[in-house]
Design a protein that fits this description.
It is built from ten helices and 14 strands. By secondary structure, the chain is α+β, with helices and mostly antiparallel strands. The radius of gyration is 21 Å and the shape is globular.
């Protein structure tokens, strides 16, 4: 990542396309949150540049309610903009809200698991679907495809049978590589990628059967990666899920990046077209913060935009497969260093 950026021309943040439109204060709030992230993140990423600590200190000195102008000036003076090489590819993700039960019933029979305590060889998805884990599940959902997409998103809100909502947070994975089953189906059915969003993929799996001996179940099993969860009852109802950096995510501000290429806490500027709230796709030129990662997020110019919780966010995320430009805001070194 550092060697890649060394060859990229530096430009002023104020010259970014669309920089003077919109309100950067929600991004500043997310940036401050990242500055106070736990020392041990949920999923480790690259170490941040030393100059980021000085930017965090100045962000705190802005006070509790800086103006839009003060916020813009902060990012303009503390950071330099660098265009990430290559065409960027943006997808969206969300926090599912699903019906669930803490006990197995005829209607709720698909398990969600915490990490196994003692296993000699971690099983892959097919083995887990076949019952390889001999432990009590955290909860049960209605069908395998729901469990699969909860794992793809990395978190969920479970609406239990007594009306309570409980949050599932990422707690680990089985270590097998992630395989995009949507990409597999696009190749096999010879359909354009735009015609195989999450809604279409779910429908195909349901129509072709979700059991391990059925086409839909076999397709899901080709992604050998399996995600484990824990309950997190510490979050406020209006707070976003916990991302890889260990902080609560903010819709349309938090960004998932490749943790092997980027540190958490860096601001990124997105210049793309994304699904708009309740409308057709619209241009998006916005400052965001790297606060999460994902197995499918691989490469310098690959990013996943957190879009919120529930069905509307799910619909937007399922439709988002957009190309554009990604800029990283790299902290300027302190004067005299």
């Amino acid at each position: 990542m550092a060697s890649t950026l060394a060859a990229v021309a530096v430009s002023a943040v104020a010259l970014l396309p669309g920089w003077t439109t919109g309100d950067p204060r929600p991004t500043l709030r997310a940036f401050r949150t990242s500055c106070s992230a736990p020392a041990r993140p949920v999923r480790a990423a690259l170490a941040p540049p030393a100059a980021l600590a000085a930017a965090c200190a100045e962000a705190r000195r802005l006070g509790p309610a800086p103006s839009i102008a003060q916020t813009r000036t902060f990012f303009e003076t503390r950071f330099e903009a660098r265009r990430v090489p290559g065409e960027a590819f943006f997808t969206g993700y969300y926090e599912p809200v699903v019906e669930a039960s803490l006990t197995r019933t005829d209607a709720f029979a698909t398990p969600l698991y915490a990490p196994p305590a003692h296993v000699d060889q971690m099983p892959d998805r097919a083995a887990i679907m076949a019952g390889a884990l001999k432990q009590r599940p955290l909860a049960y959902v209605t069908e395998p495809v729901e469990a699969f997409f909860i794992q793809v998103q990395g978190s969920a809100r479970l609406r239990l049978r007594d009306g309570r909502l409980r949050r599932l947070a990422f707690a680990g994975r089985n270590g097998y590589p992630y395989t995009s089953i949507g990409k597999l189906l696009v190749e096999r059915l010879h359909v354009p990628p735009a015609d195989m969003g999450m809604t279409q993929l779910k429908a195909w799996i349901r129509a072709n059967g979700e059991g391990l001996d059925e086409a839909g179940g076999k397709l899901m099993a080709e992604n050998r990666s399996y995600i484990f969860f824990r309950f997190d009852d510490s979050l406020a109802p209006n707070a976003g899920p916990i991302g890889g950096a260990g902080v609560s995510l903010t819709p349309r501000v938090s960004l998932a990046v490749d943790k092997t290429r980027w540190p958490y806490g860096l601001p990124f500027y997105v210049d793309a077209t994304v699904p708009a709230e309740g409308a057709s796709p619209a241009p998006l030129q916005k400052l965001m913060v790297a606060q999460d990662t994902g197995s499918a997020i691989v490469g310098d110019a690959r990013a996943d935009v957190f879009l919120g919780s529930g069905p509307e966010a799910a619909a937007q995320a399922g439709a988002m497969r957009e190309h554009g430009t990604l800029y990283v805001l790299w902290p300027k070194p302190e004067k005299g260093r």
